[in-house]
Design brief:
The complex is a heterodimer of chains A (about 90) and B (about 575).
Chain A lengths: L1 E6 L8 H12 L4 E6 L7 E2 L3 H5 L8 E7 L3 H13 L8
Antiparallel strand pairs in A: 1-4, 2-3, 2-4
Helix pairs in contact in A: 1-3
Chain B lengths: L1 E3 L1 E4 L2 E8 L16 H25 L3 H14 L2 H14 L2 H17 L4 H5 L1 H16 L10 E5 L4 H6 L5 E6 L7 H9 L3 E3 L4 H4 L5 E5 L4 E4 L3 H24 L13 E6 L5 H6 L5 E4 L14 H15 L5 E4 L29 H4 L1 H18 L4 E4 L5 H20 L9 E6 L2 H5 L1 H5 L4 E4 L1 H8 L18 H17 L2 E4 L7 H9 L4 E4 L1 H12 L3 H13 L3 H16 L4
Parallel strand pairs in B: 3-4, 4-5, 5-6, 9-10, 9-16, 10-11, 11-12, 12-13, 13-14, 14-15, 15-16
Antiparallel strand pairs in B: 1-8, 2-6, 3-7, 7-8
Helix pairs in contact in B: 1-2, 1-3, 1-6, 2-6, 3-4, 4-6, 10-21, 12-14, 14-15, 20-22, 20-23, 22-23
Classes of the chains: A alpha+beta (about 90), B alpha/beta (about 575).
Chain lengths: ~90, ~575
């Protein structure tokens, strides 16, 4: 199992479009991927479900934990980290 | 009958009324040979295909954001939380259409309960996608109106707007919804007049045949009589005449009717904004935000990369249209991996902009070197300004950085601009009170009314509960502007305003009346500001400014400016 903690910088948090990119990124791997909103102290949810992901209520500046478990878990974590840090398709600051 | 709501998208139309109601669950679909599970899967695949096709159409029309919304809906269609739930229910009930509607409602309920308005607003998207799948399952389709119509509804799915043929969509009026809902955003992008949040709309419109809608005013008239139709048509003709008059003025410099020049320049956020600014007739750039070079990356941009970006913009505008480059306005709210900034309680009152010179001197020196080299390469004198100046020591710091950047270019034998016009942002209240002394040191002032308002009124700009305090027409802000202009005049330097107020016709009249030399706004605002100024005299706006300074609240100032704007609306000259 591999995990990483990341700060989401998107000005409107993980709303529809950035969430879609997050889910697509997670969905490309065989590993099971879960996300937890640490700022809200939320439960871990399936990162391959856009509805579950949006339901975690991640706003700008929130800290999330991404947990991957499976044969390609390290690659999954790396790809998600890269995607989140580069703004999930949005300009972030 | 006249109704009013919140403006959703500007525009005026008179057209047939078309009531849209989401199809309700019909008779349970007949069970075929395939299982309910497979039928739901097929419906999800069909929904994804439809949404992808709609998204591709929007993307081809340049509506990338709107396309992204539909693509996200495609993901929802196959989402385990929606499809999986519907499959479980459908196996028991045997009615897949009802099951997907129920699952959509449940998922929407979860999102709506999230303590974040942006996520909560996405509940409508989930319902929309579930509804689409239900329609596919029961074989019903929404029949489009027969003639161009104003859509009347409680709420409409954003995908419906994308789906209906554009020529049939004359307008949109919703009983629910907000100005930030997806369908309002989409209506603005598609140029369809829209009014949202119209209380009592559906009850009142039950038998309406015709609708007149004025999106900018947030008004609609059901079954307008002859005089009401004539009034709306007259407003539409007036708006069209204004657009034509503005287009005709586009090549002219900003000035009042009696010839007092007010330079109209654009705010840009990067080279991508340059073509729009040039097309709008901008006489230069009053605010070139450079943050785009610094954000969303793991290393600071190199001097060469910055040089290329600045040079391109300077060359596009050429020597006759000055470009004011603002040093990076970044700080603790941005958490850049290459800047070692400690997290702060109040980043907008923290180590940002010029204050970075203490901890990250090299970052600002590199930027100043790149600006100077860009000016030399483009053959123009670059203008540069520092944000967040609060004291004379800040000016000394900026001056020192500027001199050091020039000296280091010379030492390395790199071509530097022989001259650099340097000025400061006036946005920290302290700078207003020191304006007399600051004006003797710098080449120009640029008042950032957005931040100045936030700091003067101690009201966080991002907090919607304080919207009433964010109006830059607050007399306190205007009196600050007047002080800054007086100090600049005494020292013989120019004053620009680069906040949103500069692009608001009412604000532009007051600011020009207060003696501001340059207004810098989004390219999309320049037409209306140019036209507004061309229809008033300098004496009229000076009188307006005098009254505004004596006013005690923003509403009064807006009303005073409104009188001048209204008079201008009846084309007397």
């Amino acid at each position: 199992m591999t995990s990483v903690q990341l700060v989401v910088r998107n000005p409107s948090g993980l709303h529809a479009r950035p969430a879609a990119l997050f889910v697509r990124t997670a969905g490309a791997f065989r590993a099971a991927v879960q996300v937890r909103n640490l700022t809200r102290d939320g439960a871990a949810v399936d990162a391959k479900s856009i509805l579950a992901l949006m339901g975690t209520g991640v706003s700008a500046g929130h800290l999330i934990e991404v947990i991957a478990d499976g044969p390609d878990e390290a690659e999954a974590i790396e790809a998600i980290r890269e995607a989140v840090e580069s703004g999930l398709g949005e300009a972030v600051g | 009958m006249r109704l009013s709501g919140t403006p959703g998208a500007p525009g005026i139309a008179v057209a047939a009324a078309w009531r849209y109601a989401p199809p309700t669950a019909g008779a349970a679909a007949v069970a075929g040979d395939i299982s309910t599970r497979e039928r739901l899967e097929a419906a999800a695949d069909e929904a994804v295909a439809q949404l992808d096709a709609l998204a591709a159409g929007l993307r081809a029309a340049g509506l990338d954001e709107e396309a992204g919304i539909l693509e996200a809906q495609g993901l929802m269609a196959t989402d385990p939380a929606l499809l999986g739930e519907a499959m479980r229910t459908a196996e028991l009930s045997g009615d897949p259409a009802a099951a997907i509607r129920a699952a959509g409602e449940a998922a929407a309920g979860i999102l709506a309960a999230v303590d974040d308005p942006i996520v909560a607003a996405r509940a409508a998207d989930v319902r929309d996608v579930a509804e689409r799948m239900a329609r596919i399952l029961s074989g019903t389709v929404v029949r489009p109106p027969d003639e161009p119509s104003v859509v009347l509804a409680e709420d409409v799915p954003a995908s419906l707007l994308a789906e209906l043929p554009r020529h049939l969509l004359a307008g949109l009026a919703l009983e629910g919804g907000t100005a930030t809902a997806h369908c309002a955003i989409l209506a603005r992008a598609m140029g369809i007049p829209a009014v949202v949040g119209v209380r009592g709309l559906l009850a009142a419109a039950e038998h309406a045949r015709q609708v007149a809608i004025d999106g900018a005013r947030g008004e609609l008239v059901l079954d307008p009589d002859e005089s009401e139709t004539a009034a709306v048509e007259a407003r539409r003709a007036e708006a069209a005449a204004r657009d034509r008059a503005a287009a005709a003025l586009r090549g002219c410099a900003g000035a009042t009717a009696d010839g007092r020049a007010v330079r109209l320049v654009a705010n840009i956020g990067g080279p991508a904004d340059v073509p729009r600014a040039l097309a709008a007739g901008a006489e230069g750039v009053g605010l070139f935000r450079t943050e785009f070079l610094f954000l969303g990356r793991s290393r600071a941009p190199s001097e060469e990369e910055q040089l290329a970006a600045y040079r391109g913009v300077l060359e596009a505008f050429g020597p006759g249209r000055p470009v004011v480059i603002r040093l990076a306005d970044i700080g603790g709210d941005k958490a850049l991996p290459y800047l070692d900034l400690a997290p702060e309680q109040n980043p907008f009152l923290g180590v940002r902009a010029i204050r970075l010179a203490y901890s990250s001197r090299e970052l600002l020196l590199t930027q100043l070197r790149a600006i100077s080299r860009a000016g030399a390469a483009a053959g123009v004198t670059p203008h540069v300004m520092a944000p967040m100046i609060a004291t004379l020591a800040d000016v000394d710091l900026f001056d020192g950085l500027r001199a050091e950047a020039q000296a280091s270019l010379e030492a390395h034998g790199l071509a530097a601009s022989p001259a650099l016009v340097w000025g400061i942002m006036v946005e920290v209240p302290a700078a207003v009170f020191l304006a007399t002394e600051l004006a003797r040191r710098v080449g120009f002032f640029s008042i950032g009314t957005n931040d100045l308002t936030q700091y003067l009124l101690a009201a966080d700009r991002t907090n919607p509960a304080l919207a009433h305090l964010h109006d830059a027409l607050q007399p306190a802000v205007l009196r600050a502007v007047a002080q800054v202009v007086a100090a600049a005049d005494a020292a013989g330097i120019e004053v620009a305003v680069c906040g949103e107020l500069a692009g608001d016709p009412a604000g532009a009249l007051v600011l020009a009346g207060l003696g501001v030399d340059e207004l810098s706004a989004d390219a999309g605002s320049l037409d209306s500001v140019r036209l507004t100024l061309s229809r008033v005299t300098s004496a009229e706006i000076e009188t307006l400014a005098g009254r505004a300074l004596a006013a005690t609240d923003a509403a009064r100032v807006r009303a005073l400016a409104g009188e001048l704007l209204e008079r201008d609306a009846t084309p007397a000259r």
